[in-house]
Sequence to fold (418 residues):
Amino acid sequence: MQTRRSFIKACVLSASIAAIGLPSMASAADTIKVGVLHSLSGTMAISETALKNTALMAIEEINAKGGVMGKKLEPVVVDPASDWPLFAEKARQLISQDKVAVVFGCWTSVSRKSVNPVFKELNGLLFYPVQYEGEELEKNVFYTGAAPNQQAIPAVEYLMSEEGGGAKRWVLLGTDYVYPRTTNKILRAFLHKKGVKDEDIYEEYTPFGHSDYQTIIANIKKFAAAGKKTAVVSTINGDSNVPFYKELGNAGLKATDVPVVAFSVGEEELRGVDTKPLVGHLAAWNYFESLKNPVNAEFIAKYKAWAKANKVPNADTVVTNDPMEATYVGIYMWKQAVEKAKSTDTDKVIAALSGQTFKAPSGFTLTMDKTNHHLHKPVFIGEVRADGQFDVVWKTKEPIRAQPWSPFIPGNEKKQGL
Fold:
């Protein structure tokens, strides 16, 4: 009798739940939660908001085609607000509370360094979509942006070449955190190997959100007046790029006099700047919106349509850029790995990611390295155009395998994979 009563109560409860529309266990199991961890406020919002948009576009696209293993992806978006400790808190929330299967996020290396211990402790999975300084290899992270040998080193080699102007003196200018400092440590070691002396290298850093570049631009002009051809390598990040480039234009520092090559400035950052005085300055990336190929044309059209449909601010002028492409590629590679593993289990997906390929908007088929969690990527150097786009002036013939451990740092010679 007791058993029968319990059965009747259970049936009534189930019917009540169905009647009021509460989610059942079955419907909850029909989705896969994925985390999106990008700054939507603060100094880095200028760069990271577009990556959140790209992630949501890719998720919508995947869902429209049937999802992953027959399940729809459910994005969980959080805003760590350019606050590096908050990145770790939000990462822990995504993995422990929201139970996401994967996280796509971070821009600055300090935010990535902040979350790395969380992903390691909880065995989560992070796709990091931005160029970085290397000197790191984490089991729980896949790096879809460039390592130094896929961006910084080729850019400096180009500027040293006759084709790139034959620079002899170097300004290493960056935001004061781990990515610029470590990248410039690698570049200084590389320049030394090329015979450049310390007196021909001027290095300076500014804090996040810095806005007054008058004195620094004046110092660069003075440094360049020594008679040797001078180039500036900029690892300025976030919204500081707007006043830096405005001051560059105000000071009349033309690319023909002192070219600036940027590693963190692309189409998105230049939307807020009058680019006419900046024509000819450079950026080194693994993708530009201006690349002509069918895959890129489709990617651009899809993003512009998504931006309008989702009422993105200034949707009529949205652009695509390198970290957006890296985000898009990472999401699809994760999808492919889940389907290969037939599971969202972190360890199984990590194993299945080895050797994954994807035809990217860059026009190249990108491969996830079998041992070092980095993509093989092409390298492009572009000159700023008056419309804020880039003309490619140099490129590699094929994708380059990443070297996360720079050979210019002593002790790295034998470091390769995990």
